[in-house]
Design brief:
By secondary structure, the chain is α+β, with helices and mostly antiparallel strands. The chain folds into 2 domains: 70 residues, Periplasmic binding protein-like II (D-Maltodextrin-Binding Protein, domain 2), CATH 3.40.190; 84 residues, Periplasmic binding protein-like II (D-Maltodextrin-Binding Protein, domain 2). The strands form 2 sheets. It has a 5-stranded mixed β-sheet with strand order 6-5-7-4-8, sandwiched between helices. Strands 1, 2, 3 and 9 form a 4-stranded antiparallel β-sheet that branches. The chain is elongated.
């Protein structure tokens, strides 16, 4: 339909949303929460295709209930999990930075951290792959809903193609939200 060619390149998450504006990639796709600060990167943004809530991965046999129980908490720097932890983690806890969720899971399973902060979609995916993990919901009542979008090179045809794909797949969550208004 759109005749786009796919070439996947893996980058560290920190700052990945800036890559299209710097002409490094056409699309940054990694469960990127669209925040007001990230809107200023110079990239176009696709329609939202998902919504996540703040979660943590913990060991399946742990009985931790939330931020107040963590002595050590791991996050990817500059992620929404990072800023959420800064707002909610108590002062005696250690905040560790990891390069990827996979590194965090390894640290968690080795007992080097109590939890790995991430979004609900990522947490559910990781826990479904390893029975030693479970998901802990950390979303607070005052937290804004997080919308997930693609960061795009500033090209209208590319943005239109990606948005058409999202709408065609029925993934644009704002369409459903607007029906209720």
């Amino acid at each position: 339909m759109h005749k786009l060619e796919l070439a996947i390149t893996i980058f560290p998450f920190m700052g990945i949303w800036d890559l299209p504006a710097r002409d490094v990639v056409d699309v940054a796709a990694s469960g990127i929460s669209l925040t007001s600060a990230r809107r200023t990167t110079g990239s176009y943004w696709s329609l939202p295709y998902g919504r996540v809530s703040r979660s943590a991965l913990i060991r399946a046999d742990d009985s931790l209930k939330g931020y107040g129980d963590f002595k050590s908490f791991s996050v990817i720097g500059e992620s929404i999990a990072h800023s959420h932890a800064v707002r909610h983690l108590h002062g005696k806890a250690t905040l560790n930075f990891i390069p990827s969720i996979e590194h965090g899971v390894e640290s968690l399973l080795r007992g080097k951290t109590d939890a790995v902060g991430t979004g609900s979609v990522s947490a559910i995916h990781q826990a479904s792959r390893d029975e030693r993990l479970k998901v802990l919901d950390l979303q607070a009542d005052e937290d804004e809903p997080e919308l997930i979008s693609f960061s795009l090179r500033r090209e209208k045809a590319l943005r239109d193609s990606i948005n058409d794909f999202i709408i065609l797949r029925g993934e644009n969550i704002l369409i459903d939200d607007q029906k209720d208004r």
